[in-house]
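Researcher: Going back to the complex we discussed earlier. I've cleaned up the inputs and rechecked each line, so this should be the final set. Can you rerun the prediction on the complete assembly and write out the structure?
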Amino acid sequence: MDKFETLTGIAAPMPLVNIDTDMIIPKQFLKTIKRSGLGVNLFDEMRFDRQGNEIADFVLNKPQYREAEILIAGDNFGCGSSREHAPWAIKDFGIRCVVAPSYADIFYNNCFKNGILPIVLPQEQVDVLMKDAEKGSNARMSVDLEAQTITTSDGETFSFEVDSFKKHCLMNGLDDIGLTMEKVDSVKAFEAKASAERPWV
Amino acid sequence: MSPKTLYDKIWDAHVAHEAEDGTCLLYIDRHLVHEVTSPQAFEGLRMAGRSVHAPDKTIAVPDHNVPTTLDRANATTMTEDSRIQVEALDKNAKEFGLHYYPVSDVRQGIVHIVGPEQGWTLPGMTVVCGDSHTATHGAFGSLAHGIGTSEVEHVLATQTLIQKKSLNMKVEITGKLKPGVTAKDITMSVIGETGTAGGTGYVIEYCGEAIRDLSMEGRMTVCNMAIEGGARAGLIAPDETTYEYCMGRPHAPKGAAWEAALAYWKTLFTDEGAHFDKVITLKGEDIAPSVTWGTSPEDVLPITALVPSPTEYEGGKVEAVQRSLDYMGLTAGEPLTGIEIDTVFIGSCTNGRIEDLRAAAEILKGKKVKEGLRAMIVPGSGLVRAQAEEEGLADIFKDAGFEWRLAGCSMCLAMNPDQLAEGERCASTSNRNFEGRQGYKGRTHLVSPGMAAAAAITGKLTDVREMM
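Model: Rerun complete. Updated structure for the full complex:
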């Protein structure tokens, strides 16, 4: 997994609440057996018409946001399906960080498995970042995971919380299957105890 | 010992390792797998030279993009990319030695219907699947939730998940439901109350007389949509209804093992005085047959209500409601009853069980689908289909003018050819009314099976109570 330490980039504003995973990556793109190549279909039905032409007023089609690496969004981002195709598409497009007042649980977890940092901030602070993002490509924001801060183009800095284990894995690009396998003795001991107590399982 | 909730008890019984910061390895008793979210996970295992840790606890079934037409054995009814996904599951199930129900097996169906039906899902278990509607299995008093593909790979490799404990939330539905009101109306009304993010960070325990009175099928419908309320999982303490459902199922314990299991299951309840971080109470008698009008499951109202106006909302929801109304082609202030529909879909892991088909048949008996309307019933599994045929329900559906399909997820997420056309409006027993969910620019109104059947007859959203 790619490491995430710091990021300075363009932020795209998407001030919609309940942006669901069907919007992020519609189901017709879930038929792949790969993790890569989904970026071209990110937000497909909002981004393209049925003939495949770009819809000019969609934020990621605007010239100033085509290279966005940060997304600022409304409440409950990533709700709906568990499809990891959603963070795969976001990452493949080039977005490494999302900022929203809240996320759906499964989407939030999926981000960390893919080198994406989902930042949670109170609505008033998201509003400030949204305004900053609306300035376009000259307004670059900076994220520092170690310091747990995000800074607007005007230098205003907000601190965010992140789980220490998730932060550690993201900063070091760790594969958590490998980490769990180091605890195989605990798992085996648990299995022995559980199969004695609940043999029908 | 301090009093525990049901969730606390199941959690504590499955912690295989706990780090100092509270990060746990939660042991997984049952891992359900389908064709859409698993190929990358199996490929990951292969690349790393890893095996499946507990193939005997891993159950696979293709459901999301299998065709549901009667000619599906003919390979040309499936698109090339769908066929590749199903074949990948065939191959992975065989290579890694999983329990498998292929398309050709009469027991095939939607993974969340097959698991309970075959007795894989039992009280007190931890159950995961790369699908958000895994919450369904919580109806048995098991801790069940959806995971992403990386986590699917993690469970395949280690039979554990890295987790931190969620908070406890109680949703109590007191008293009795009125006639025409179902489990679907309960679960939609709860989301209407809490919002789609109201459950975020929580595991919900549903309780109260109206929940106790539900069959297992109804309880599965309630828990199924816990995820639409944002909760990690929803669960219901097991009782006689649960034990009766489980008894005799192919993979349920038998004889002495059954007795031992039963003794354990009887300890699975929330202790008197246990702490809940959030409590929601609804009166059963206040719940009405419900319908969604917008593009989020929280956009729900009683069928007797009017389409709301954005001015009734605050913050980011104002713009979202306007966007929903534009998308849905509705005007604030128009009555929900009377909205004309083009399609009716009865099925899905929310409402594709035998009880749901019985409820639909009750309304459809001796009636005809409105001329020009497309109506389909997609049973949740091959066994549900067989039972419905045996009970004569299939004849009622066919006589009424419904298409009687083979089992699968079908138009719930429209990954197979069962889709809405642009602008088409559907009364659907599924679980999500998101933009494009049932087809590009398709318009979805979520309802109970009885409400869907009533809409099929009149051709418009209808109060099922008028048809009873």
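Model: Worth noting: Chain B has three domains: 7-163, 167-286, 290-467.
Researcher: Good, that matches what I expected from the previous run.
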